[in-house]
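Anyone? Bumping this.
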Amino acid sequence: MKDFIHLALDTATARGASYADIRIIQEEHEDIQIKNGRIGSLDQATTFGFGVRVIADGAWGFACSSKVERSEIEKISALAVDIAHASASLKIEDIQLTRENIYTDFWTTPYVIDPFRVPLEEKINLLMIIDKILRKDKRIKVAESGMSFKREHQWLGTSEGSLIEQILLRSGAGYSAHAVGKGDTQVRSFPSSFRGQYASMGYELINNLKLVENAERTRKEAIGLLSAKPCPSGKMDLILGGDQLALQIHESVGHPTELDRVFGAEESFAGSSFATPEKYKNLRYGSKIVNLVADGTVPGGLATVGYDDDAVRSQRWHIVKDGMFTGYQTNREYALKVGENKSRSCCRADGFTRIPMIRINNLSLMPGTWKLDDLIKDTKHGILMETNKSWSIDQMRLNFQFGCEIGWEIKNGKKIRMVKNPTYQGITPEFWGSCDAICDNQHWTLWGVANCGKGQPGQRAEMSHGTSPTRFRGVNVGIK
Amino acid sequence: MLNPEAAQQIVKKIMLYSQADQTEVIIQNYSKSLTRYANNVITQNVHENEIMEVTIRVIKDGKTARMTTTQVDDDSLKKVLRQAMVLLKNQKKDPKILSLASKQKYQPLDTYVERTAKFSPLKRAQAIRNAVVECTQNNLKGSGIFSNSNTVLAIANSKKLFNYHRATEANFTLTAIGPDSNGWAGETNKDVDRIDTREIAKRAIEKALKSKDPVSLPAGQYTVILEPAAAVEFLLFMAFQGFGALLYQEGRSFLSGKLGKKLMGYNISIVDDVYHPQNLGMPFDFEGLPRQKVSLIENGVAKRVVYDRLTAKKAKKQSTGHALPQPNTHGPLPTNLILMPGDSSLKEMIASTKKGVLVTEFHYTNIIDPMKMTLTGMTRNGTFLIENGTISRGIKNMRFTESVLKALSNVELLSKDLKLCNSFFGGGFVTPSLKINNFNFSSGTKF
């Protein structure tokens, strides 16, 4: 690979690139889906290719190919430079990058059991056991369960001299039970919706999820939702379960603090951000108990890597500290725009066909001191909502509205009934400002988000959000 | 890029090496280029060069598995086929797996335009520069994309089926951004020369200028006029949540048990038709069957859903040519929907409205209740108050929470002009502008 890397970098610099990097990536995927007792799909994929990114004449160019051959590497490297020259025809200033250390290193995701070596039969059998439990009641019309594994072997070389080899491994599994009746359909998922829980781990993740143990409860809750009352409407207290809070963090803190969005680079698609530079270190983002920490080193985090695609080492920092807005998620290009001389290592690409860009890192709400039972006892009237069903947020990341799979109405300190189709809506800083209680680290889980979309052409990224159940006061729920 | 002969060569090798009873091959080969700009400068400029993806499905003894590779040399293909056979060994027999389709006849679609395939980064940059100059002259910032692609899709199987389709697509968008307002316009076409970037810039800039100094409107029910780029979101969610036969058979579609019933207004008809001149799409599905025109909603009455071979067998019908790659858990999907036109125009809709809201686009629309087709989403990039038949001023963006079935029961007017638009989460559909009464906005935002 070193020969290919040097060939690309030499070609690009000889053609006038002031900076170049190449990522050669080999990916293995395995995906198993079981639906109603049948194998819904069984896929394996192996992809191999490279992408060359350059700065020439002060502007970016990128090209990629799935032909990993010397002649193609030369051609694509030259093409990336030509594209950069075209970009330079419409620039105001030259691209500048932060100065970073140069690394030669190898890094791999720590894991115990290689999921690609676990017999397929074992995986299918486990999913079939779950499927049988989910479909024990005829009102469950659809049971879906699945597992997914990915190994990404990447070689990154930069014209500045970094040469980094990484092997990134992630595993995931989960299931859903869809109940149908009375003109309605309701779903319950475990451990979370959108295909379950994901982590940068090996098959030990699957063994620890207690998938079988939770299948019966999942089925019963799905059926219970068919006859549950709709979520009441009005202003009341809201306790968000950890998996829903993960998405709340993702949408209302993660995306608005991506610095490329802040500077308008994402305006044409996913939008921009209210968290603009004049608010940096001035804005009260949440109440004093809100501490949100980005961490590219946290064990199991889907964004946990040794180095990002800018060849910058992973790190940990506050985005919100004691409620104040104190940090952005940056790469080498954008960090300089807010006066920071080092990147926060948030630059990642979706495989070899995509250009690296700022992506949300692992971003977690630090645990508080409450026990969930005590939090419920302390709530006079509210709803406990769990597991995301729908999400929507404006392009500045202010007005959001989420729907959850299940809600529990709380009155005078007790969960009195299950409610269906629970929704809530808020404005980001006001919502986080209403946070008054966070459960402790016994309740804290790192939830994987494996389907974050951004960019044109579209890129998917994966990251994790650590959360424990958390209460917000006086929230609009039951939106009509 | 692969021509039909080169695609056939890859297929022949795979068939030669395969030890399965039946083998299916899907070859995707594409070059895609995209220039992205923001703040009046080019920020990203990328090219994917003749990327190859070959997906092989093997069937043996009532078992099936799928492998994908980007490498098509002999050794890679042999390795993939060996691995596919290993995957089969670990399964139990599934009597529901269908034999592959036999050779099919389909009407080819002329969706390839050479000049789109060859459109250069310099030409994209020049068009963007022209748009940006217009923005700058109006004290606005331009943001958007100019993309062009050239894609080949070949589907073949061991029962002699071989289908080949190539297509080009170009897409130009501009969001013009002022201090407190945005305006969007964009076009998608197979022929890059039919995209009038200057006219797009003019429309986007006009919207940004007209919507400045926006005021807040209280939540409530309003007469709303949705431009096609907003209305397209309705089609996306109906496609995914109800028009496919599998969801229908599972009782999870908003159409389940309601075929033959009137669910929308008399003026609403929806068809899926890849041969409509404004549609971009392929003439066959991922089982290789020809796509058929399917009338889904006729004058407000739910008539049909779309089928692949498996759901058709269960319903004792014929496939309509709407299969996704097999097997899959979602079932068939209509990808070329058209909301049929009316006889009005956007101008007439505005003129006939005493008080209402004009929406350019929706942002981040998502589903709340699939059986009622209740959606929520935010307005974006040009939201206006209409008073006494004219656009009076811009308004701050608002969130709608509304049932599509209710909204399409309250459509007063549809434009006769149709437009192909891309929805936020992907998929392009053809739709007119709509004037809808009693449309529910549930909250507002700060800009």
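Late reply, but here is one note on the structure posted above: The radius of gyration of chain B is 24 Å.
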